[in-house]
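ENTRY TYPE: protein
CONTENTS: sequence, structure tokens:
***
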Amino acid sequence: MKLSQRITHLTEGGSDGWDVFYRARRMIDEGHAVTELTIGEHDIRTDASILEAMDLSARQGHTGYAMVPGTDLLRDTVAARLQTRTGVPTTRNNVLITPGGQSALFAAHVAVCDPGDVGLFIDPYYATYPGTIRGAGATARPIQTSADDAFQPRAQRIDAAADGAVSLLINTPNNPTGVVYSRATLEGVAQVCHARDLWLISDEVYDTQVWDGTHISPRTLPGMTERTLIVGSMSKSHAMTGSRCGWVVGPEEVIAHLINLATHTTYGVPGFIQDAASFALNAGNLLVEEIAAPFRRRRALAMEVLSTQNTVGLVPAQGAMYLMLDIRATGLDGEGFANALLDTHSIAVMPGESFGTAARGHIRVAMTIDDDRFAAALTTICTYAAVLADRRAAE
């Protein structure tokens, strides 16, 4: 008996790059005190008003099978949100509600990729991207970016890798780098999509966390509405990570087929979760700003701490809940530095290599602990990096 290659090769049979994270969790289980700056999990929980709406919906009986495409209320709410934010006409027929953003990413790739096709994605990348593409039966092909170019994906590199490709996956504001793609970058992406007849899958789950610059959805660019699938989620904007409620927004024909896919896979999202999501989206910007505020504040703290030293570099921290720190001056790659930091100071960060090869020599720091501990941990990281850099210089 054997398993399918599709399932056994999701990570190409190797590590998924999260070994440091798993080691830190084992240390915690063994009773060690570890400062975790690893995953993108809010240090505040889902707002009480959202939970109350969820509880009320469940108690009123919305616990049976919900409509597979999503409730009309939530689909209309998501459509109105996208239309307001982008100016692109959007109706419920452009929206499929999914069990979280990850499910939406998978569904989008199943919609546009046949077995043997090539799905492009940007390196550095969120850890699940290549496995998601492989899970859809396609070949995952990374597009390298450069730290010296603020990890902006350039049209020439995308075009050079596009032979055999049918799709391109991008993410702005970006996890892991914290970079927000510029208009020029996105216009270059759109140009290649037109020239190479690519579907664009745009992961926009961090669109409410922009600290510097402006989030531009590529769906708004000329000729891109009909070839773009937007992935969104309640997880980051409303601290509803465990509720698993996301969406795909795209052309009506695509959504119709994705509804058929959902009928044969997820069979929808619980109605009381959808009612809570509808409540949250209709609660207004104040709630969204309250959830984003700690990350905006800690980004400012980080810039203060980093301004007092010259060993650790900061990739432009324009959005999302992460910092990408350049530790190449230490002579270590990201994995080596992260392991040494965990061993010596019990601080857990993600190696840049966890997210591909382009971020080698970097670490990703999640801004997900309280302000004082965050500033102290970041100060320790900088001090430790300076010690390693001095030791390297003396050798």
